[in-house]
Design a protein that fits this description.
Blueprint: E1 6-9, E2 11-13, H1 21-24, H2 44-49, E3 66-68, H3 81-89, E4 93-96, H4 101-108, E5 114-116, H5 119-131, E6 137-140, E7 145-148, E8 151-154, H6 159-167, H7 172-178, H8 180-189
Parallel strand pairs: 2-3, 3-4, 4-5
Antiparallel strand pairs: 1-6, 6-7, 7-8
């Protein structure tokens, strides 16, 4: 299973409250059969409107693995494509003031921690990243903290979500593969899986 104990790397500041899933990935891109290729369309309409000046287009943020957002990020429809588009672009963790519940759950199901902090802490981090795009940000899930430069602050993640990430339990496919022998053993004891043939 894939344990997620922390994410370290450059970050991308995305300023604004109530950024919904339709902005994250417009509806016309939901017809894809797989999620491959969604990353290039993340924030497609916003990026087009801003003519290359959207944070996801700026060259200084192209190596970012951590997204820093404000209040109620991922609100709107429950489309799983929204976190998938962000993930396919290269984001591995999100730090914000608050998240829409379904969006947060969809991120957790993909092993992407969404941690929260106060408005002032998030705003200060966004400002520091804008000032120095090469700033390294360290999200430590074991200590529930974020560190950058000479600054650090505590972040909030529910106990259940934190444990799932630390133990790798978020990775349901990984659990199935890891426990294959137990699954086979259990299936052999189930009477409805024991097929018998005989003359009618």
């Amino acid at each position: 299973m894939s344990q997620v104990k922390g994410i370290q790397g450059q970050a991308l500041p995305l300023v604004g409250n109530d950024i919904d899933t339709d902005r994250i990935i417009p509806a016309r891109f939901l017809r894809c059969v797989t999620f491959d290729g969604l990353g290039e369309h993340v924030f497609a309409d916003d990026r087009q409107q801003q003519g290359g000046n959207h944070p996801f287009d700026l060259p200084q943020y192209q190596q970012a693995t951590i997204l820093v957002v404000n209040r109620n990020f991922g609100c709107g429809s429950s489309r799983e494509h929204a976190p998938q588009a962000i993930i396919k672009w290269g984001i591995k963790a999100i730090i914000g003031e608050s998240f829409a519940e379904i969006f947060l759950g969809n991120c957790l199901a993909n092993g992407v921690p969404c941690v929260t902090a106060s408005h002032d802490q998030v705003q200060a981090l966004q400002g520091a990243i804008a000032e120095d795009p090469n700033l390294m940000v360290d999200l430590d899930l074991t200590s529930s903290s974020v560190a950058y430069g000479d600054q650090s602050f505590a972040v909030v993640l529910s106990d259940g979500a934190q444990q799932m990430l630390l133990d790798g339990q978020w990775d349901t496919c990984g659990q199935l593969v890891q426990n294959r022998n137990q699954i086979v053993a259990t299936s052999q004891k189930l009477p409805y899986l024991q097929w018998t043939t005989g003359a009618a």
